[in-house]
Amino acid sequence: MDITKLKEEKAINVGIQTLVAFMSKEFPIDGGNCFSVHTESGKGYQILNFGCENLEEAIRRGVTWPITILVLQESNKETHARGCAVIHDPRIPNDWYWKEFCESCAPRNLLSSSQRLRLDRELKAGIRTERETDIGTIVSYDHDKRPELLDPDKEKPKKDSGIMFIPNYPVQVKALRALLNKSLAYIGHEFNCGIHGGRGHYTGDCDCRFREVKKEVEETLKEANYYGTD
Prior knowledge:
By secondary structure, this protein is of the alpha+beta class.
C-alpha cells in the first residue's frame, strides 16, 4: 500500500459505533468497539484500525477534532462497497492503533497478507464457513475444528462457536434483535451496530429488504442447529 497516494480527510466526529462492553481502566486497550466518522467534506467512513474507546480516551487526554484519516476505499452504491479509512494522526502514539484491521469491517482485499492467509487456513480446515447471498455474507465458526498441539495428558478445552452476518447494505437492525439474541454478531453496512450475547444499542431504521435478510439468517441458523434446545 502506497500511503503517499491515499487521500487525506479530516474527521470531525464519530458517526455510528458498535456498543459492546469492554471492561478496562488501562489505556490503550487492544480491542474496542468499531465506529465510523463524519468528515469536513460531508462523507462518512468506517474506521478499520482504531477502537472507539481508545479514541474517546485520546480526546479526553487532549487530542482535538478534527482528526486526520487516510481513505482506503470510497463508498459505491452499485457494488455495495463501504467507505473505509484509517486514523493516521501524528498526535496519537503508535501503541494506540490496532496492529491489524478489523476483519468484520474491512473488505478482504484490505486485510494484511497474514490475515488473509489465516482466514484461508480456517476455511480449508472447516473452522470458518462462508455462505454468500445476494444480500450479504453469512460466516459461521466451528472452533472445535481448530487444530491444537495439546499436551496429550490434558483435556482439550471447549470453545464456543458462533455465526456472523455481514449484509451488503443497511437493514432494519431493531427488528433483528429478537432473532439474533444469543452470540450472533451483526455488522451493518452504513448502520454499524453490534449484538453480542443479546446486548447492544441500535440507532437508525431504514426500509431495506428486512424479510429477505431475516429468512436467510434463520435458514442458516437452523441448518447449523444454532438455536439448540433450551
